[in-house]
Write a structure and sequence with these properties.
About 55% of the residues lie in helices and about 5% in strands. It is mainly alpha-helical. The mean pLDDT is about 85. The structure holds heme C (HEC).
């Protein structure tokens, strides 16, 4: 009878451990979602020749990544906006001449999102 009372309803500590486990797993997931793979982002920039028109801190034909980061600072949709910008070849204008922006070539969406995060954190 006593055994049933203790184990039948679950030990209270088990419940606490379960809660702790769930919240810790959540924190780990959040940390992973925030982390930027800088090396992968920079390699993608080079592979797509984005550096022809962009640099981290200097204005070229395109805005510096720092300028773009400042533009989207505090805006929740910054990453989504950049993802669209990089994947849909929107029209841009360079010295009065309209052309399509580079449509990025990347192995998957996650690689493009990582690059968007990288740009937004310069
Ligand atoms: C031929 C030059 C050129 C190349 C190559 C180029 N861009 Fe751009 N990019 C521009 C110009 C010009 C703008 C500004 C467009 C505007 O403000 O209308 C721009 C804008 C941007 C922006 C800002 C978008 C925003 O919403 O403010 C980002 C980020 C960006 N480019 C990233 C990249 C990446 C990453 C690559 C490589 C895949 C790349 N660009 C390749 C010229 C270029």
């Amino acid at each position: 009878m006593i055994r049933n009372d203790v184990f039948g309803h679950g030990h209270p500590l088990t419940f606490v451990k379960l809660l702790l486990g769930v919240s810790m797993a959540g924190a780990t997931l959040c940390a992973q979602a925030q982390a930027v793979d800088v090396a992968a982002a920079e390699a993608l920039v080079l592979a797509n020749k984005c550096n022809k028109c962009h640099s981290v801190d200097k204005q070229k034909d395109g805005p510096s990544f720092q300028k773009t980061a400042a533009k989207y600072k505090g805006k929740a949709d910054g990453e989504a906006k950049l993802f669209t910008h990089l994947t849909t070849a929107p029209m841009i204008e360079i010295d009065g001449i309209k052309e399509e922006h580079t449509k990025i070539k990347a192995k998957d969406d996650a690689a493009v999102k990582n690059l968007a995060k990288y740009i937004l954190t310069r």
